[in-house]
UniProtKB/TrEMBL annotation:
Transmembrane segments: none annotated. The lineage of its organism: Eukaryota, Metazoa, Ecdysozoa, Arthropoda, Hexapoda. Keywords: DNA-binding, Nucleus. Residues 24-44 bind DNA. It is found in: Nucleus. One of its GO terms (molecular function) is DNA binding. It comes from Aphis glycines. One of its GO terms (cellular component) is nucleus. It holds the Pfam family CENP-B_N. This is HTH CENPB-type domain-containing protein.
Length: 491
């Protein structure tokens, strides 16, 4: 076979495929070159990755595009096609950019070859051959992958350093009485589209590190966020409350920076949906894609972790509904309410339960002691099955149409509050969603009276109340205390 010249992009792509377990012989045959050439690329992988990173940084120094919105839309479309292994040539991209410009009502614009060249340089894009991926899956693919590919992928990583991340859709307002009405709703539109969110759940194999949840809503700044200085989750938004490639990349970039500060490297397992692009620039995260059409078996989060979160969440939602009925008030659930309940639900998922799900998916060694691993089956058994599974088929990501891309780009440029805020959140009572210090202290006093007079609380629970009081008091400004004593002395 003859030797051929590879671009830097092609070499990085080959390195990524080798890291994901593909064989040298398969890749060399596809490119029509000898296996020694592929071996040389693999041998020089660290040097090539550094060159790729340097090129990317240099690309950022190029002059910025005149039509930033159009360039952003073009980049989203391009990344989506690449994630689907669709080969994109210069003329195809040029035609698509003209179509996007027309949809964005940009007048007197005609995409030229030089515009494409600058676009490619700014984003380090190369037009190489992309191998197609068959949608047909061999029935033994899961066991073969676990036996022959997974051991080499995980080499050098201990169980604490292996993570899985997966998205789940939530009808966050849905109460049991509405379950049958919306059973089977996939929510690509429809009546429940405003009442849905997407949640990214991630944890390591031992369950000792549960990442802060990522919640994706529709509104950029929901009214219920007014006065909120921090959230227990990461929050992003887009017009359909879906995971997108841009949100996924932003999330992993932030995580990679965290790991850089800790000087820790991890392996992250994800499925190969369109919203999960292959990110070659990550330094501390080794991104591994599960084989196509195997996530129902190989995705640890799908083996019970997400199910447990939903059970804990819906348990809280039902208790809130009962409490509102007893207090004779209309039951309402805002995005902020959902976020708080989701955080509590995630905290209630046990590390042993998570480890058990990794084991069930086949990722733990057969010698691992699993006698103590249990899931939260008791809680799940208390929740109606239809209610628990109502949003299992909810879409969390999808191939974006040109209209979706354009709308999301335009929406991301808006600074004002999202006008699509739910009407329930516009009520005056929600203007004061965040309690004041005095309201929090009064609520704590009520809780203390309950524990000390109606319920035989444990020492640990009383200590927790004391710690909570200390935390609340620490937020009281010292100046307010001084003002109080000044007034007292005057009287």
């Amino acid at each position: 076979m003859s030797r051929r010249q590879f671009t830097l992009d092609e070499k990085i792509g080959i390195i990524g495929r080798l890291e994901n377990g593909e064989k040298n012989s398969v890749i060399s045959k596809e490119f029509g070159t000898c296996s020694s050439t592929i071996s040389t690329i693999w041998k020089n992988r660290d040097k090539l990755k550094n060159m790729f990173q340097t090129t990317s940084l240099n690309a950022k120094r190029l002059r910025t595009a005149q039509h930033k919105d159009l360039e952003e839309a073009a980049l989203v479309w391009f990344k989506q096609q690449r994630s689907l292994n669709v080969p994109i040539s210069g003329p195809i991209l040029q035609t698509k950019i003209d179509q996007l410009a027309e949809k964005m009502k940009i007048e007197n614009f005609k995409c030229s070859a030089s515009w494409i060249q600058r676009f490619r340089q700014r984003h380090n894009i190369g037009f190489g051959k992309i191998s197609g991926e068959s949608s047909a899956v061999n029935t033994d693919i899961c066991s073969n992958w676990l036996a022959n590919v997974w051991p080499s992928l995980r080499a050098g990583y201990c169980d604490d350093e292996i993570y899985n991340a997966d998205e789940a859709g939530f009808f966050f307002k849905l109460t049991p009485d509405k379950t049958l009405r919306f059973k089977g709703e996939n929510c690509s539109g429809g009546k429940l589209s405003k009442d849905r969110i997407t949640v990214l759940v991630a944890a390591n194999m031992t369950g000792t590190d549960k990442r802060k949840l990522l919640v994706i809503g529709k509104s950029k700044s929901p009214r219920c966020f007014k006065g909120v200085s921090s959230l227990p989750v990461f929050y992003e938004n887009n017009t359909k409350a879906w995971m997108t490639s841009a949100i996924f990349e932003k999330t992993l970039n932030y995580w990679d920076d965290e790991l850089r500060c800790k000087k820790k490297k991890i392996l992250l397992l994800v499925d190969n949906c369109p919203a999960h692009p292959s990110l070659q620039h990550l330094k501390f995260i080794k991104l591994v894609f599960l084989p196509a059409n195997t996530t129902a078996v190989l995705q640890p989060m799908d083996q019970g972790v997400i199910r447990n979160i939903k059970a804990h969440y819906r348990n809280q939602l039902v208790l809130k509904m009962i409490e509102d009925i007893e207090n004779q008030i209309e039951s309402k659930v805002t995005v902020l309410d959902a976020i708080i309940m989701l955080d509590k639900a995630w905290r209630n998922v046990t590390s042993t339960g998570i480890a058990n799900c990794f084991r069930h998916a086949g990722f733990c060694d057969v010698t691992t002691d699993t006698t103590q691993l249990q899931t939260d089956s008791g809680l799940i058994n208390n929740i109606d099955e239809d209610y628990l599974q109502i949003d299992d088929d909810l879409i969390t990501s999808e191939i974006q149409t040109d209209e979706d891309i354009v709308n999301n780009v335009i929406a991301s440029q808006q600074v004002e509050l999202d006008n699509d805020t739910d009407i329930d959140e516009l009520d005056d009572e929600f203007e004061k969603t965040v309690p004041s210090i005095s309201e929090a202290r009064a609520a704590l006093r009520t809780l203390e009276r309950f524990y000390y007079t109606k319920y035989e609380g444990t020492d640990a629970e009383r200590k927790a109340l004391s710690l909570l009081e200390t935390s609340i008091n620490s937020n009281t400004k010292q100046s307010s205390i001084k003002d109080y004593f000044k007034k007292l002395n005057k009287n």
